[in-house]
Request: fold
Amino acid sequence: MSEDEAVWSASDGSGAVRVGVRCACGRDRAWQALHDPAGLSRWFGDLTPGWSPGCRGRIEIGDGDFFDLSVEELAEADHLAFRWRFLGLGAQSHVRWLITDRPDGSEVTVEDRQPGRTPAETDAMIAGWTDFLGRLARHLRTGETSRYGIRDEIDGTVDLPDAVADPLDPGVVHRWLPIATDGFVPRWFFIVDSDGPRRFRLDDWTDAADEVTFRLAIPQAARPTSCAIRVTRAGAGRRLSFVHAGWCRLDLPEHRARQLRRRFTATWVSAVAHARDLALTR
Reply:
């Protein structure tokens, strides 16, 4: 990225962040990269069905990650405003993409608001938007696709009411997490989807009051992936979070790693949504 394309960021401490990037192109070219689904797919993800006020849609990143969104405002060549949830599970964010003129081009600014964000979550959001806007600037400068191929972690959160059984309790976790034991400890993690059922060896299961960790072996991969599930306080309730890491370190062909990551992402989303549904129906 050139100095003229430096990304800047700011936060007011309330869970709102602003991240921007200066671009050498004019407003119309920048707007096309944001608004046109074909342009958006070159640096961010695949949007369906499109941007239209009141429309509900989804942006697929390509490795299993996605955002479910609802469009609120659209002003031609000026701004887009929408609400979205990562993986359709997390806390809802209000996002606004704004384009302004500069003497030497244009500036694209992202405003992302989510009350209750922790400082760590705010820092992570700034880092994420800094990366994405850097990819936007690179695409606008070169005309080439600048999307990433695969992200190392599958991660997500879901908020639960407080007065429910602990989702990590041994008598509860087996109800929503797709695992099976060998009679003593968890030993297998299952995926059941349109590609057929498959089980993956599970090792080093460790559980504590607020965290479960384990490793999952991927056939023909150089090393296993690692998983951590945690429960933390979140306002008046609790937050269930998961991280499944190691997808960039498998030493498998990227298309194979991406295919597996998509399947595991769908499985995690389904499992965590089931944990939420169990909590809400008690």
User: Anything to note?
Assistant: Residues 164 and 211 are 17 Å apart (CA to CA). DSSP finds five helices and 15 strands in the chain.
